[in-house]
Design brief:
Chain B: Keywords: Membrane, NAD, NADP, Plastoquinone, Quinone, Translocase. The complex is a heterodimer of chains A (158) and B (219). Chain A is of the alpha/beta class and 158 residues long. Chain A has three helices and seven strands; from the N terminus they run αββαββββαβ. A five-stranded mixed β-sheet of chain A has the order 1-2-5-4-3, covered by helices on one side. In chain A, strand 1 and strand 2 form a beta hairpin. The radius of gyration of chain A is 18 Å and the shape is elongated. The chains are: A alpha/beta (158), B alpha+beta (219).
Chain lengths: 158, 219
């Protein structure tokens, strides 16, 4: 089953892989990290002018890391805007994904958070540094192989 | 931990204090070769006690490593006179390095024991303030146990970056050590403390834990 955008991308010879539809019927595509920036620009030109959310997760212990982008096409007079979900998978050894900050500026803090939590380094991001954890923190807290340091906290106080 | 990125730490084997400043300071400090005395009062006589330490000669360190059973003797810095409160310069981003939990406050600074002048420019020293809220009853001996453990940790973390994260690792280890001392009955809660909330567990009368009874996560 091929979605609309997937068919459009095939027509224009852009490499991607269809991952089907999510529970709301939103088309989901997988795009390789090296293609992602150029396809992001093409999608922006196509009309996806709004990045609804960006997030990242650790797929499996020892497996890949994923960066997820939800795009929406906002137009006047449309009550069911076109939506698409893009997933970019990257190896945890060298997690580098081109940043789409220069396409959708709203991805700024969300990519920083993904960097902070999972250590995915977004290339060309203007100020990629930790946003939630202290800057001297070591390790990526949301990776499945992360081991929390044995910091002292008051647990027994009455 | 990356060893010695941008001069932030010692490369040589021995130091008591994590060294943040540049090479020249490090060399200057290596000139001090004799062990120094503890520069502050003990906790039971004063509101808080300080231990400030500094570098020592490398050979002394080597000897200590050969006998790991013996408690590491603290190597405090010599007391300084006319200490003025100074902040870090702007070239360090005016950074404030500390790890503060209830019983352990570690600052990368020299704190004068009497005047409490706080010289943050001396980042080659760490100052430990033990139990400022007087939750426990401390004797000179138990204080020294904590101090020597502090010294041991500092020697252990030598070469690590001087960051809040490292200081927090050290501070947490000392807190766990204090809890272990409490569970063994070596220190007691101070019943005259201003806040009696038994932050390390309810007090038990009449017995102390043996080592094998202490929950594993506290060891």
């Amino acid at each position: 089953m091929q979605g609309r955008l997937s068919a459009w991308l095939v027509k224009h010879g852009l490499s991607h892989r269809s991952l089907g539809f999510d529970y709301q019927g939103t088309e989901t595509l997988q795009i390789k990290p090296q293609d992602w920036y150029s396809i992001a620009v093409i999608l922006y030109v196509y009309g996806y002018n709004y990045l609804r959310s960006q997030c990242a997760y650790d797929v499996a212990p020892g497996g890949l890391l994923a960066s997820v982008y939800h795009l929406t096409r906002i137009e006047y007079g449309v009550d069911q805007p076109e939506e698409v979900c893009i997933k970019v998978f990257v190896s945890r050894k060298n997690p580098r994904i081109p940043s789409v900050f220069w396409v959708w500026k709203s991805v700024d803090f969300q990519e920083r958070e993904s960097y902070d939590m999972l250590g995915i380094s977004y290339e060309n991001h203007p100020r990629l540094k930790r946003i939630l954890m202290p800057e001297s923190w070591i390790g990526w807290p949301l990776r499945k192989d992360y081991i929390a340091p044995n910091f002292y906290e008051i647990q027994d106080a009455h | 931990m990356a060893a010695g990125l941008n001069a932030s730490y010692m490369a040589s084997t021995n130091f008591s204090m994590v060294n943040f400043s540049g090479e020249s300071t490090r060399k200057a400090l290596l000139m001090h070769r004799k062990p120094f005395t503890v520069s502050a009062q003990q906790a039971d006589t004063q509101d808080y006690s300080l231990k400030v330490e500094e570098k020592e000669e490398e050979t002394v360190q080597k000897e200590e490593e050969k006998q790991p059973k013996v408690m590491k003797s603290p190597r405090p810095v010599e007391p300084q006179t006319n200490v003025k409160s100074k902040n870090m310069g702007i070239e360090f981003g005016s950074e404030w390095l500390s790890s503060t939990t209830r019983h352990v406050r570690i600052y990368a600074a020299y704190i004068d024991p009497e005047t409490c002048a706080f010289d943050q420019t001396q980042t080659d020293k760490l100052t430990l303030i033990l139990d400022p809220t007087d939750e426990f009853v401390w004797t000179e001996e138990t204080c020294n146990q904590v101090y020597s453990y502090f010294q041991e940790l500092i020697d252990h973390y030598e070469g690590a970056d001087l960051t809040e994260y490292t200081l927090r690792l050290i501070g947490s280890d000392i807190e766990h050590y204090i809890r272990k001392m409490l569970y063994r009955g070596e220190i007691q809660y101070n019943m005259n403390a201003r806040v009696l909330n038994f932050s390390m567990g309810k007090p038990r009368v009449g017995f102390a834990y043996n080592d094998d009874q202490i929950p594993e996560e506290y060891l």
